[in-house]
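Run log, item B.
One chain of 59 residues. Sequence copied directly from the ordering sheet:
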Amino acid sequence: MTTVAPLRTVLGRFPAGHPCGSWPADEYAVAQRAQGLDAHVVMDLRTDQFLVVTDTTAH
């Protein structure tokens, strides 16, 4: 059985040093979910950013 790893599409990037922390990223993810995208926030430690991503499957 072969599995296909989901690909992530980055919808937005927000600096981790923002005074409000991840709130701007969280608010953006909520707005994207309201438009029908399955968006969520992850932390990119390499770039020190919060990323709003959606999972897509490669065909």
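Observations after the first pass:
- The helical segments are 23-34.
- Residues 15 and 49 are 5 Å apart (CA to CA).
Flagged for discussion on Thursday.
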